[in-house]
Amino acid sequence: MFDKVLIANRGEIAVRINRACQELGISTVAVHSEVDKDSMHVRIADESVCIGPNTVNKSYLNPHAIISACEITGAQAVHPGYGFLSENASFAKMLADHKLTFIGPKPSHIEMMGDKIEAKRIMREYGVPTVPGSDHVINNEKEALNIASDVGFPVLLKASAGGGGRGMKVVNNAKELTDALPIIKQEALSFFGSDAVYIEKFIDSPRHIEVQVICDSHGNYLHLHERDCSIQRRNQKVIEEALAPNIDDDKKQKLFKICVDAMKKMGYLGLGTLEFLYADNEFYFMEMNTRLQVEHPITEMLTRIDLVREQICVASGDKIFTNQENVKPLGHSIECRINAENSIDFKPSAGKIEMYHPPAGNGIRLDTFIYSGYKVPHYYDNLLAKLIVTGRTRNHAIKRALRSLNEIVIDGIETNIELHKKILSSSEFKSGAVAINWLEKKINQL
Questions:
Q1: Does residue 291 carry a catalytic annotation?
Q2: Stretches in the chain below the pLDDT threshold 50
Q3: How wide is the angle at C-alpha 156 spanned by C-alphas 152 and 157, nearest 5°?
Q4: Catalytic choice (16, 207, 291, 394)
Q5: How far is CA 180 from CA 93, 95, 144, 202, in A?
Q6: What digits encode the pLDDT tens for the residues 148-160?
Q7: Which of 162, 223, 420, 440 is in Cβ range 3.0-4.6 Å of 167 for a Cys bridge?
Q8: Which domains does the chain have, with CATH numbers?
């Protein structure tokens, strides 16, 4: 086991990782930008190092600064959390070159799954059902039109290196395709450093279902059931839940087996999440995230397995502490992403938190980094906290979430708490069959 781990992230996930490390008896090093010097993850870590100014490119996305912090503090491993450098294969290779452990998958697997065209091709070979579309980069307009004609309009133009809802556009006919292709290629180049794009059949009103897996170096490959992430705005998840409601259990069990078999064929190591569209009782693979997910707590609450702890243990060479037979979900769990933003126009909100009071009670967890008097900066993602509740049933979990949202106090800045209340109170959400475009359609009414 490691003696000291550097946490290459900020905010609630850095606090979350710090707690798991300290429970394992591992000393922690927090890195931070100048503006984050008073952040909670810095306060609770054993050591901290300032790695640069406020902009992410000069701090949290600066691999040389992070490696220097490891050398200064004697950290043996780096946990990247999510976002930032968590799916950067070059960073993982750099750590290995400096005899440091990357707490995550092998660089080759990060690289493989980071290219969405290659990921689809490989998963198709492994027997995982995929969305119909191109299996290579679109080189020109003529090729795009031929593929779209074969697949059938509408189609989805997607950046191969994309993520976070960027580099995507639905096109309904040939003219829209020829107009959109250069725009999406430029957007892909601007955001992801590559203008490679591909085409998929556009599946109207699917649900977003994902399967959590964990694998060690001793031949153990486990799934930890599924999550439903269909409540989205602009392709960004808002509410997640586990298990997914209204899906046949036999269908899910077949999907779990397919996912685990694919991980075995790949020789995967660590945590991973396979994401699927679900429509007309069929699953279609979209992509695989080779990192810890924002929504990992609902799986933890449901299975009673500490995913971050297991991630660290697997990276150190240990076996997963349990087996598939013992991974049994209990109850139902819901996560609400509480953001610093206006609930009406979604404009980000920054400033001083005048008063903070968390909800409490049985089955309630709040992952956050804020406190009364903390100044929320405007440089970073606006996620403030994740409210995770678990109940005996889905209905029980919804009621518990609503009670918790009524109890939480975050004064001084604007948040989307009221939006969460309205989503959870809606009849459509309660019925458990909302699709990924539901919130976009209902947002004005809510």
A1: yes
A2: none
A3: 120
A4: 291
A5: 36, 39, 11, 15
A6: 998 999 999 998 8
A7: 162
A8: 4-103 (3.40.50.20), 132-201 (3.30.1490.20), 207-442 (3.30.470.20)
